[in-house]
Amino acid sequence: MEKVKERIELLRKQLHEHNYNYYVLSQPVISDFEFDKLMKELIDLEAEHPELHDPNSPSVRVGSDINNNFPQVNHRYPMLSLQNTYSEGEVTDFFNRVKKGLNEPFEIVCELKFDGTSISLIYEKGRLVRAVTRGDGRMGDDVTDNVRTIRNIPLILKGDNLPDYLEARGEILLPWSSFEQINKEREEQEEPLFANPRNAASGTLKLLDSRVVASRRLESYIYNITGEDLPTDSHFENLKLARNWGLNVSDTMRKCKSPDEIFDFINYWNVERKNLPVTTDGIVIKVDSLIQQRNLGSTSKFPRWAIAYKFNAEQAISRLESVTYQVGRTGAVTPVANLEPVLLSGTTVKRASLYNEDAIKALDLHIGDMVYVEKGGEIIPKITAVDLEARKENFMIGDKVRFATKCPDCGTTLVRNEDEAAHYCPNSEGCPTQIKGRIEHFVTRRAMNITIGPETITLLYDKGLIRDASDLYNLKFEDLVNLERWGETSARNLIESIEKSKSVPYERVLFALGIRYVGETVAQKLASAFPNIDKLIKATIEELTSVEEIGNRIAQSLIDYFSKPEFMQFVMRLKEHGLQFELSEDVLAAKTEKLKGLTIVISGTFKLHSRDEYKAMILQNGGKNSGSVSKNTDYILAGDNMGPAKLEKAQKQGVKIINEEDFLKLIE
Ligand SMILES: NC(=O)c1ccc[n+]([C@@H]2O[C@H](COP(=O)([O-])OP(=O)(O)OC[C@H]3O[C@@H](n4cnc5c(N)ncnc54)[C@H](O)[C@@H]3O)[C@@H](O)[C@H]2O)c1
Ligand SMILES: [Zn+2]
């Protein structure tokens, strides 16, 4: 008995933590399948031991995505989760339960289960007034500003017979193509990758800068209409009408009458879903009639009139042939597993990522091992386990995999910092891959936008014409025109493109330098806080971390960069070539110091300007914008629906609360 209690408590604790990683941080550490297995164990144990019931158990509560960066809003109708299963038998059980519960004819609607993050779009008289996340099911985060940037969410609905009050509920997702693009950029920045499009979508929806959200190409799929005076009693018909109103309803939903028809739908989409532009992780099976739905009711966590059947992630088994290492432009070394080619989710897989030394150790990997590979949405698949049974009878088994000690490119001894998982090649000045990688980053479209490909960079590097990106500005027409396969036009084009890059604005030049952890957004933040490079070079850790979103890790990386003579000389050479190392006149002219020294927290929704506009105004006027209330807060700029937690904290700390008009007077 004591044992069971301990196990239940441990499971609850673990599941709470995984919920937090998944919903709030958008960085899960275990797979959904493993999570669902733990949850099932908890549910089964709790069913056997009703005396250990706890209303706060993760088995009876919706996992919450609430963080304190957004105002919270109550849901008029609760937003629940779905009961889920991986077993066809449980789908049949569900069907029979419904049949028994209703004891009258009924119809089922089968839909794809889109794997993103849920949203409730509130339309009043056809206008989008609010968009709220699921939160804990009873209240969610108000992310209206961000949702307004999603192109297939109409701000005004079409048609005349619209209900006065309407909640369109659906999923916000990131198509595969955008997900891969974002992860490619994060990889270049050596930022942690999103495990799958779902985490990328939920992470994006909770960003504080709507402009970044707008650039990420989120999409919505609407799967439910709630409200008073709905047009019909059929969920299916209402969704069809919603499509005419302009909402994006998938045309894959089908009506079914029997378990067999449901299984046909499941089997069809288990194959066909691989051709969809977005991720799906199962199908949802719902009772069609709204009256029947109400009669069946809900638990505190999910409706009794629906169930989700989830697809298993696809796995393959293959032999590990070797482990090789790749060096990135910041010197980070990543291990790659080379496998005997094997078919997985329709593509031939030859490589899998191994992340870092700890991941290799955890798998206890040996060359020749039979390993399980899975494609969970990553750019390249990952190894999830080793077949230990197979190892026993395996005559081909080789050495235990040990992380490389030398750089595969330049032979320098690798280093690993104490609190980091990654190994680095410290030879930033002489390691060819790093040098070429930095030049490739420097010229990308979003940095200096110079039209030159990796092959040309390698060619010019091998010929000794460039040793770093600043040498691009020394290139002469004569240097290029005589190169093999080059002509006058290509030589002239490159010279012109290089010349043009001298007018690229300061923030993009900062990004182009390729300082570890300094991505586009960070570069923008730095540029507005330190309007020229000399100020940035002189900035202390404290000054750097006082800028919004700049933490210790980024600050330390900047300090390290500017303390290396080779990088300082590089920056000076770029300066001599005439690149932009300060904010342009017009940006500077608009700047004031009216809010100098003041820290302001923004909370609630506003009428006169958007949150982002207010944020920009604070920065433009020399103030600091912070996400949470603390003893350093000077003002709270409060709109409607300010989060109750923030309000209470503000009153406790005695922070002054001002409204939109007061704020605008401050900067008049
Ligand atoms: N790996 C982890 O650490 C971890 C942690 C927490 C949760 N999870 C995963 O998340 C699941 C629980 O998440 P959840 O509560 O959001 O449930 P869920 O994602 O399994 O199902 C409910 C959600 O499905 C979505 N949905 C998509 N298409 C739909 C449709 N056509 N009709 C209705 N709803 C539709 C809705 O947003 C709804 O909220 C777990 O089963 C687990 O797989 C994983
Ligand atoms: Zn090296």
Automatic annotation (TrEMBL):
Q: Which residues form the BRCT domain?
A: 590-668
Pfam families to which the protein is assigned, alphabetical: BRCT, DNA_ligase_aden, DNA_ligase_ZBD, HHH_2, Nlig-Ia, OB_DNA_ligase
**EC annotation?**
6.5.1.2
Q: Which reaction does it catalyse?
A: NAD(+) + (deoxyribonucleotide)n-3'-hydroxyl + 5'-phospho-(deoxyribonucleotide)m = (deoxyribonucleotide)n+m + AMP + beta-nicotinamide D-nucleotide
Q: List the keywords (alphabetical).
A: DNA damage, DNA repair, DNA replication, Ligase, Magnesium, Manganese, Metal-binding, NAD, Zinc
Ligase listed as a keyword: yes
Q: Where does NAD(+) bind?
A: 32-36, 81-82, 111, 134, 171, 286, 310
Q: Which GO terms describe its molecular function?
A: DNA binding; DNA ligase (NAD+) activity; metal ion binding
Q: Where is the active site?
A: 113
Cofactor(s) the protein needs: Mg(2+); Mn(2+)
Its protein name is: DNA ligase
Encoding gene (name) = ligA
